[in-house]
Specification:
Layout lengths: L9 H23 L6 H25 L11 H28 L8 H29 L7 E6 L3 H13 L4 E8 L8 E2 L2 E5 L3 H7 L2 E6 L6 H13 L3 E4 L17 E2 L2 H4 L9 H8 L3 E5 L4 H11 L5 E6 L2 H14 L5 E5 L5 H11 L3 E4 L6 H6 L1 H21 L4 E7 L8 H15 L7 E7 L1 E3 L5 H10 L4 E3 L5 E2 L1 E3 H14 L5 E4 L5 E2 H11 L10 E3 L18 E4 L5 E5 L5 H13 L6 H11 L15
Parallel strand pairs: 1-2, 1-5, 2-4, 5-6, 8-9, 8-11, 9-10, 11-12, 12-13, 13-18, 14-17, 15-20
Antiparallel strand pairs: 3-4, 6-7, 16-19, 18-22, 21-22
Helix pairs in contact: 1-2, 1-4, 2-3, 3-4, 10-17, 12-14, 14-15, 15-19, 15-20, 19-20
């Protein structure tokens, strides 16, 4: 039982290893001479023992093979012992070669003794460690209740995950099954654990109390992954995921890195293949300005651009703390990037004009905007002042200094808008399009739906409500939304900006719309809570300006394909540039009066399809 204590002294392991070596040498001689050692060989025995023991002891000290915690012995530990012993045995062979040439054909250590000693020492030393490990797991805590775990993936990652559970989690977990889609592995055993077909998941989960399913396949297709997650959720089994190999600490997976599946994994989509050569050519040696650079989209756009060759990245934001935090983060992560962090408000023409004149950006990504529908519904002045006038200032200055490209980030709420925010973004789109033929600057618009995890989005809100024990609030049982991850959205922005020739409104493939109530239910299950028992869902009613279903295209629009399967060009109706600019100038002049009704009325003139819903401005339609 001494070996099973938590802090067995390393000197004791060292002594035991030395005794094993001594035993192996003697046994090797006995086996070599059929347990009847002749006098001549007996005379050489002390010299052979001395050479072997000194070599083994020195190799143990140099390699530190005795310092491992033997109750957590792994394949890596066994491999280290093998290599240490092998190197010693190879040294014995060189000693024999030396003595053969310098002492007239004398082999001081018979080759048969070297081979037998190596085999016996390796076998006994590894067996000793494995016996201690088995004793610790099976005999020291025989009555401890173990948590059943299953692993999807009977490959190398699955074996590593099982080893991590045994090494880091002690005796708490027991892997009872592997699951595989590979028919060649089904029906076999891996480390004495049966491998089942994935078709058996429901059967195993329903007939056993399984606490966790670990997904240990790195290249699993997202649809297959979602199927497995759904099966586990239906059987109240928590789903865990191991990170990509690139994120393992010092190349090794640790127990703390095995994380719970997030809702993002349920909404995961196909990997985006970027044309990196074109993007590199587009960004190389360019000064790039990003407004709203500290927001969810803006900051991720900065990170992705920083990975490409560039001249300078100028980050503009009016949020002081967010700007400071981003500066600290990027300074630590991107040592070779060139950043300029500027605290400024896009509504301040003089300040922004000075920035453009000084840095003369080649590319402008305009992300800054107010985006919260209910807030903008109550503050049309700010929606027009920032989303329309602010966008106009940035676009005008890009044109003034002859920037190569101006890429505006818009929203699906600009399509058939039912709220002030969506209408303000649509007006900004219209203005940007009118500038495309006025100079060398190419004006491009990108339009997409909600992004997962963005500031103020539904995912962080639900997470916060679930953490507090509920209730989870949803505006309407039938409400749906399109979702996209932040990295995916930014990748497509870069790709669209690269392919744009000017004047296009690019829309992104958002996949299928998601019912928000289904999203909430899955998040509750992922948190291991029971709907109706541990937590409730409460319907609060649609907020001002909110609509049940988002759209990506106007009813009178259609799309054209591009070379990228996830990016399309919206064929929007053409507006008279002169009339549009006159109407927008009038809208901006109305800001002086701070009359919300006059502002919204003018917005409806500019965007005839803008019909308010659940709003005080419905009377203006």
């Amino acid at each position: 039982m001494l070996f099973l204590k938590k802090n067995t002294p390393t000197w004791l392991i060292f002594i035991i290893d030395a005794i094993i070596c001594l035993f192996s040498v003697i046994l090797a001689f006995l086996l070599r001479f059929n347990f009847a050692i002749p006098p001549l060989a007996m005379a050489d025995l002390p010299i052979v023992i001395a050479i072997i023991m000194i070599t083994r002891i020195l190799s143990f000290i140099l390699s530190g093979s005795y310092t491992g915690i033997i109750r957590y012995t792994t394949i890596d530990d066994a491999m280290r012992i093998f290599l240490v012993l092998l190197s010693g045995s190879v040294l014995f062979i060189f000693v024999n070669i030396f003595t053969y040439f310098y002492f007239q054909g004398l082999f001081i250590i018979p080759f048969s003794i070297i081979i037998i000693d190596f085999v016996v020492t390796t076998l006994v030393m590894t067996s000793f460690r494995m016996l201690v490990k088995i004793a610790y797991v099976e005999f020291l805590t025989p009555n401890r209740e173990k948590t059943n775990v299953v692993i999807f993936g009977a490959g190398e990652a699955g074996v590593i995950a099982k080893g991590v559970l045994e090494r880091d989690a002690g005796t708490k977990y027991k892997v009872i099954a592997f699951f595989e889609d590979d028919e060649k592995k089904i029906g076999k055993k891996l480390e004495n654990v049966p491998i089942y077909s994935a078709d058996k998941i429901i059967e195993i989960l329903s007939t056993n109390t399984v606490a966790h399913m670990i997904i240990a396949v790195h290249r699993i297709h997202h649809t297959r992954k979602q199927e497995i997650i759904e099966l586990c959720l239906a059987n109240n089994t928590k789903i865990l995921n191991i990170p990509p190999v690139s994120r393992w600490i010092n190349g090794e997976l640790s127990f703390k890195q095995i994380k719970k599946i997030k809702i993002d994994d349920l909404l995961e989509r196909d990997v985006i293949n970027l044309d990196k050569h074109k993007i590199t050519a587009d960004l190389s040696d360019k000064t790039i300005l990003i407004t709203g650079g500290c927001g969810s989209i803006g900051s991720e756009l900065v990170r992705q651009i920083a990975d490409f060759p560039h001249k300078k990245i100028i980050i503009i934001d009016q949020a002081e703390s967010a700007l400071y935090n981003l500066e600290v983060e990027l300074g630590e992560k991107y040592k070779n990037a060139h950043f300029e962090f500027i605290l400024a408000n896009i509504q301040n023409y003089g300040r922004i004009n000075r920035i453009f004149e000084h840095f003369k950006p080649d590319l402008v990504y305009h992300v800054a905007a107010y985006k919260h529908v209910p807030v903008m519904e109550e503050n049309p002045y700010e929606a027009v002042y920032t989303n329309v006038n602010g966008s106009k200032i940035i676009a005008d200055l890009a044109l003034k200094i002859n920037s190569e490209k101006f890429v505006m980030v818009s929203t699906d709420k600009a399509v058939n808008p039912t709220n002030v925010m969506g209408a303000s973004k649509r007006i900004a789109e219209m203005y940007v399009q009118t500038l495309n033929q006025k100079g060398r600057t190419k004006f491009i618009t990108t339009r997409f739906g909600n992004v997962l995890g963005s500031n103020g989005s539904v995912i962080p809100l639900f997470n916060e409500q679930i953490a507090k024990g509920g209730p989870v609030t949803i505006t309407h049982p039938e409400i749906t939304r399109y979702f996209m991850t932040i990295p995916e959205a930014c990748q497509l922005i870069l790709e669209a900006g690269c392919m744009g020739k000017g004047g296009e409104i690019f829309i992104f493939d958002m996949g299928e719309s998601v019912k928000i109530v289904d999203l909430a239910k899955k998040m509750i299950k992922l948190s291991n809570l029971t709907l109706g028992k541990d937590i409730q869902i409460v319907y609060t009613g649609l907020r001002p300006g909110e609509k049940l279903y988002e759209e990506l295209l106007n009813n009178k629009e259609n799309t054209l394909p591009t070379y990228h399967p996830k990016i399309m060009i919206a064929k929007v109706r053409e507006n008279n540039a002169f009339t549009t600019n006159q109407q927008i100038e009038l809208l901006i002049k109305l800001l002086e009066y701070q009359d919300n009704y006059k502002l919204v009325q003018q917005m409806k003139v500019l965007v005839p399809e803008y019909k308010s819903q659940n709003s005080i401005y419905e009377k203006l339609d």
